[in-house]
Amino acid sequence: MARSVIGCLTSACSRRAVIWWSRAFACDIFFHGRSRLKRDVRRLNTMRHVKTEKQLGQALREDAERIEIEGDLARQVIRIRATGKVSWAVCIACCSVAITLIVLGPTPKKPAILAPAAGILGLPAAIAAISIGFAAGGVAALTKLRRYREISRTSETLVLERR
After folding, report:
1. By the number of CB atoms within 10 A of the CB, which of 45, 58, 121, 157 ranks highest?
2. pTM over 0.70
3. pLDDT surpasses 80 at 73
4. Which helix (H) or strand (E) holds 113?
5. Rounded CA gap, 104 and 41, in Å?
6. Which residue, 86, 49, 74, 58, is CA-closest to 144?
7. Buried-exposed string 52-83: b where 16+ CB fall within 10 A, e elsewhere
């Protein structure tokens, strides 16, 4: 008799455990918590329309699934994304130093630091790259931007999708 009662209790507990575990895995709560689930759902449902460097930096920080870039910023992003690997290494170093100097405060050598990046990307694209990096919180956002895949391009818009 005791054996049947214990068996009944363990089967009921195991059923509850199975239900709980299946819910936890289905909702991705067990590993990552609710905030990640909400962020992922928000990211999948939206396409971000961007007109300024600050908005683009925010979209990159939030890992937006699709980004539609409009205006002059689209042309500058095309230049940033079209840079080769070796040239990009020089640009990323210059941009990281420039962002650090912006954070530290006013210094007289900002234009000199920007010169190599401006030579490779062009002055408007270099300024846009530094602004995007500053708005997103670091130079890693520019590397994220280069990882996005181009969906469509017109004269005034650029649509990017995350790989």
Report:
1. 121
2. no
3. yes
4. helix 110-121
5. 36
6. 58
7. bbebbbbbbeeebbbbbbbeebbbbbebbbeb
Residue type for position 155:
S
Tell me the CA end-to-end span of the chain in Å, nearest whole number: 60
pLDDT at 32 over 80: no
CB 65 within 8 A of CB 43: yes
More confident residue, 108 or 26: 108
CA dihedral 44, 45, 49, 52 (to 10 degrees): -50
Question: Distance between CA atoms of 20 and 109, rounded to whole angstroms?
Answer: 59
- The lowest-confidence range among 38-42, 52-56, 65-69, 75-79 is 38-42
- What region does 105 belong to: left with phi over 0, alpha with psi -120 to 50, or beta? left
